Amino acid sequence: MKDSEPDVENDFGPHLFLNIDAYQGPQDLDSLFQLFDRLPAEIGMTPIMRPYVIRDEVGGQPVLSAMTMIAESHVSLHVFPREERAYFDIFSCRFFDRSFVVPRLRAQFPGGSVQEALIARGSRYRYLRTERADEHAKSRTWLPQR
User: Fold this and answer.
1) CA 144, CA 4: separation in Å to the nearest integer?
2) DSSP class of residue 47?
3) How far, CA to CA in Å, does 33 sit from each of 28, 77, 95, 100?
4) CA atoms within a 13 Å half-sphere pointing along the CA-CB vector of 52
5) Rounded-to-integer distance, Cα 43 and Cα 106, Å
6) Rounded mean pLDDT of 14-39?
């Protein structure tokens, strides 16, 4: 996937993907829950629910998934333990500093090679809505100050 840097004036927000080979990060429900409980705040996002973590099978292969809804949208991870692969994404309606976020994510999701892609979302929305920026800022006041 080719990067498309978001345009702050016209796009809805960034969508970041990490495809991780030889994944060695968290691979049990408790560890994933703990990670996704703290991760949004660590990367400057606003959690609006506790993490949702499940174990399932796809084509006879085990898969673990973790997701946290954030005020900005969501963060999620799908881990395929037998294949040692993981797929992470964060979609945010608020623009973020990629150079700040990506190193923190890579530290949480160790592995071999990591394919990274960032695409602009909402380029085709008819209107960029910014009139509620003050209300969105207020929603973050319950979080500890960094």
Assistant:
1) 33
2) B
3) 9, 11, 25, 23
4) 9
5) 12
6) 93
C-alpha torsion sign, points 75, 44, 70, 133: negative
Give the whole-angstrom CA distance, residue 64 versus residue 46: 23
Write down how long the chain is.
146
| Residue keyed to tokens 């309606």 | 93
Confidence of residue 143 (pLDDT cuts 50, 70, 90): low
Secondary-structure class of domain 13-139 per CATH: alpha beta
| Domain extents in the chain | 13-139
CA 103 – CA 42 distance, rounded (Å)? 11
Mean pLDDT, rounded, for 44-69: 94
6-10, 19-23, 123-127, 137-141 — which one is most confidently predicted on average? Answer: 19-23
Per-residue CA distances from 95 to 10, 20, 23, 38, 46 (Å): 12, 23, 27, 20, 13
